[in-house]
Structures are given as C-alpha cells and as structure tokens.
Amino acid sequence: MSGLITRRGLLAGISALGAGAALSACGAKTGSDTSKATGAKADTSGDTVKVGLLNSLSGTMAISEVTVHNALLLAVKEINAAGGVLGKQLKPVSQDGASDWPTFAEKAQALITDSQVVATFGCWTSASRKAVKPVFERNKSLLFYPVQYEGLEQSPYIFYSGATTNQQIVPALDYLKKQGLTRLYLVGSDYVFPRTANKIIKTYAKANGMEVLGEDYAPLGSTEFATIVNKVRDAGADAVFNTLNGDSNVAFFKEYKSAGLTAKKLPVLSVSIAEEEVKSIGTQYLEGQLTAWNYYQTTPGAANEKFVAAYRAAYGKDKPTSDPMEAAYISVHLWKAMVEKAGSFDVEKVKAASDGITFDAPEGKVTVDGATQHVHKTARIGKVSANGLIEEVWNSGGPIKPDPYLKGYDWAADL
Question: Distance between CA 86 and CA 169 in Å, rounded?
Fold first, then answer.
C-alpha cells in the first residue's frame, strides 16, 4: 500500500519490545542478509569521509523525516565550510528508510558495508531504531538518533540526541498534574514508542493520583479516527495524551475538530507534533493545543536565531524549524567535537572521548553524558499559536540529566 507502513514492518517494530532475538529477526527480513557483520571498516584514507543519512524520504513518516534529513545536510554543509573534521570534508550519503522497518535495517547495512561511512545519523520511530540497532551493534558502527523516545534502552553504538523519558514524558505529566488535568485518555500509533510510553504513563498515573480513562491505538498511516474520537469525547477525561506519529495526526485532529472538541474543551498534549507537523495539519485544527519538547523555533537565544536563519536561507523563508530537526542538527556537531577530541574517526576512541562534550545548541547548552550516551536537555511545554508557531509556556529551568531507565524514580522501579 503506497505511502503506508507494511504490516510486516509494523509487526517487526512491535515485536522489538521483547528481546534481542526479535530485533535480529526484524533485521533479517530484508532483501539482503543483515544478520551477519561484514567486518567492513569506514574508509578514512582520502580527503573526504562519508557520513550516512538514514531517513524516511517516502511513506507515512516522510511528513516528519524529510525535514530532519534537511537539517542534517545543513550541519554537514556548515562543518565543511568551517574546514571539515580533522581536515577532511564530509560527504553525505543518503538512504531512504521508506517508513518501513526492515528497509531501515537493509539500508543501514548498506551504509556501513557498501558506503563505508564513519557514522550514520537518522531514524525517527522507535521501531526503525529497534530494527537497525542490531545492525550497528554487530558492525560496531555508530548511529546518532535524533528523536525523543520512550527510554528503557542503551546501546554501546547509539548516541541519543533527542529526549529520553525523564526529559519529555515525565515533565509533561508533571505539567498536566499541576494544571489539575488528572483524568487522561491515551491515543497513539500502534508500534513500540506509543505502547511503551503509555505503559510508563499508566505507571506514573497510578503513583501520582491520576487516572487513565481509556487507551486506543491506530496503525501508522491510519486515516480513520471517528470511533476513537467518539470514545475520547465520551470518556470524561480532562486531557488527551497523544503519541500518534506521522500523517495520522492530520486525520486525528481534523476528526477531533469535527466532533466539536477544542483545546479549551479538552486539551491534547502531543509529544510528536512539532512546527513542521503543525504546518501540515493546519493551524486551525491545532491552535491552543499543547506539546512537549526540548526546543521550539521560538526558543530565545543567538544560537537559535543563527540556526533558524541558516535553515531558511537553505530551504525557504517559510520553512519552520522543529525539535527533531534541531536534535539532528546538533548530533552532527556533537559527533564532530567527539572526533576532534579523540583525534581519530575510530569508533571506540570517539566513544571514549564523548563524555562531557558540550555544544552551544539552538535549544541552549547541551552536554553529552558518556555513561548513557544521551544528552542533558531542558524540558519545555509549548502551546500552538494562531501563527502556526509554538510558544513556550513552561520549562524545567535548566538541562535535565538523562535517566533512560528512570532509575531516579521510585514509581518506575517495576518498569
């Protein structure tokens, strides 16, 4: 079905919640055998080195991932203009994951084996990340993953530049609780991230005097939300926690408005809708709704002004920036700093040099935590304004140390 996730890919992503064996199976469903490491090493012999860009440039996730790809290209361009990395220019090699998890695994192997990249930047959904995780681990090659996710994961060959759970979902729940919005309805796409995130949300709710009144999932790419919206409307909830991804959000919010639901009547807090999605869905459907991220186009500071101006100059003055784009952009700059600190492109040396690496990012100063290979990030709650931008209504006051396994939260002990 053109533009939609295949059932095979969706089930592969969902099965990744289980064990490493399931992940290997996910990678093995591609046209080429990704179950064995090739021993291929990055080619650093010439004046250029290749970096892999792995994003969905087609399919249901293209609404979000094309702009991430553009942000990665912008970072590469800036780095090359400043002299490259260790005196070598970066040559980006793009692969289309096509919104299909087995395809992501196949393309990841191609970048490592055929293109001999020094590092890869990309993926969006957790299902795509779960699919490629064993590929990067077997080949001992680095992936920089730029999108907020459900946590409960660490990989020796993945750096996570987007938020983990305690930097987005937990602050979002804290915010709703403080606003007195304690009766929640959960709506999400049917794959790894929403199901795991909602498991965490339900555990948090039970320990914090909140109540989950309903929980529904739709296939990625789904355009039928009448039944779910009717259930939401009739549940008596104070707020909806939305973990839908991709262009399903378009159909959901149109149906939401058609059912007479508004941000004032029943607010929706989304964790996968940023400025680009607002533009695609339509401001008239989203005005006043809430989001949880670590960066907005409106985030103040000289570094962000420079980033927004550079992105508009490259891709058009009407093109917005967003959190996943910014996290992708900074991931390339963080990798550059790691390589230069290590004095080498060697993966193990780069990893060893990662702890404490900082960057004056558009979102504010970020610091790499070498122990978890995540990044210290400031949590921000925003509200969609009439002009299509997202205005911050709350922030955490400073960067939050990453805690992917929620070890610092007693209520999360059983997760």
Answer: 38
Are 375 and 166 in contact by the 8 Å Cβ rule? The answer is no
- Tell me if 76 sits within 8 A of 90, measured CB to CB: yes
What is the Cα–Cα distance from 108 to 123, expressed in whole angstroms? 10
Whole-angstrom distance, CA of residue 361 vs CA of residue 331: 10
Show contacts of 6-11: CB within 8 Å, 24+ apart. Answer: 6/100, 8/102, 9/99, 9/100, 9/101, 9/102, 9/103, 9/127, 10/101, 10/127, 10/190, 10/191, 10/219, 10/220
The whole-number average pLDDT for the span 253-259 is: 97
Alpha-carbon distance of 151 to 39, in angstroms, equals 29
Question: Hey, what's the torsion of the CAs at 400, 406, 407, 412, to 10 degrees?
Answer: 140
The DSSP string of 96-155 is E-TT-HHHHHHHHHHHHHTS--SEEEE--SHHHHHHHHHHHHHHT--EEE-S--------
Distances, alpha carbon 335 to alpha carbons 47, 84, 86, in Å: 18, 12, 12
Query: Strand 48-55 relative to strand 89-96: parallel, antiparallel, unpaired?
Result: parallel
The CA angle 179-148-93, to the nearest 5 degrees, is 155
Residue 192's nearest CA partner among 128, 242, 133 is 128
pLDDT band (50, 70, 90) for residue 17: very low
Angle between helices 192-207 and 126-139 (to 10 degrees): 110
Q: Which residues contact 234 (CB under 8 A, 6 or more apart)?
A: none
Measured between alpha carbons, how far is 269 from 257 in angstroms, rounded to an integer?
15
3-state secondary structure of 22: helix
The Cα–Cα gap between 134 and 140 comes to: 9
Q: Which helix (H) or strand (E) holds 170?
A: helix 169-178
Q: Which residue has the tokens 């921000």?
A: 380
CB 286 within 8 A of CB 253: yes
Q: What is the pLDDT of residues 356-369, one digit of tens each?
A: 999 999 999 999 99
3 state DSSP class of 269: strand
